[in-house]
Amino acid sequence: MVVWTGIFAIAMVSQLADAADRLHAGAGQAMFWGLMGLLIATVVVPTVWLLRLPAALRYPQATDIAAIDAYQQRLRAHLARNPHVHGMPLGSEQEVHLALAHLREKAESETRRTAASVLASTALLQNGRLDGLVVLVSQIQLVWRIARIYGLRPSFKQMSYLYGNVSACVLIASGLDEVDFAELSAPIVQSATPAAVGSIPGLGGMGHLLTNSLASGAANAFLTLRVGLIADAYCAPQLAPERSAIKQGATRRAAQLLGTIVKDCGTQITQAIYGRIKHGVVSTAQAAADSVKQAGRSVSGATQSAYQATTHSFSQAAAQVRNSTTSATQRLQQSIKPKDPE
Fold first, then answer.
1. Residue 267 and residue 317: Cα distance in Å, rounded?
2. Which residues contact 42 (CB under 8 A, 6 or more apart)?
3. pTM, whole model, 2 decimals?
């Protein structure tokens, strides 16, 4: 499955390069190698750094007292070097548990943050292949960040299982855009974000699209939460985890966290979209009002010019009539003037 994910990523990069080449001849090759370099930097490099971390500490069998003492000493020494719990007391077993709980809280916070980012990105992109790349990069980096929080990495077997989950999430994300979630998950999304449709009055089609986008993003966020929680269980110092128990626990906890993330992100996305629509409507109305006002000014100017021209014409005509009348009167007076007697 990891191999198929790599093939999928290369195919996606090739499609983007072909699109760039159609826009500008010769840009495809530069786009291909640039995106491949970026993909390697964001996926392969964190994986290499992950492999350089020490393997996670596992609690020994309860009957081996010497092994338990050695484990406690190694755990305290490791936590003392961890910058996330620097300065916390580690003398007693309870203090060690408090330090581990602090690390788990930070790891879960990082998982929620990444899941929210994936939800927003994939809800807005609405492109299966781009969604797959976003999920791939985000989940690989999430595993690396959780490992850095603990300063420990999963075993090689656990890493293969974890990366298999990431690959499955990528393939699922790439096909989610072909599923119409609006009817399947509208009650779930609208219960978490009641403003998703109601806050955009009169835009039923937009509400349908928004609901489907949020549902698709929520599915990707759920998969990301699950991967992050599994990585947390594999990196945390504890008893050797059982795969089935970890899968069930991660699925339940991801379902619990998903509602809050969908509510927060869905409200923000809805408000952002509504704000853009409102701004567009106001701008269009303002432009129309300005056009009408300008047209009114033009009509008023034209009317005033016509009035002035008409007045000037009447004035000229009146002056000509007056001059003509005056001339006629003078000629008449001259013609009827009595002649002097001889």
1. 73
2. 137, 140, 141
3. 0.68
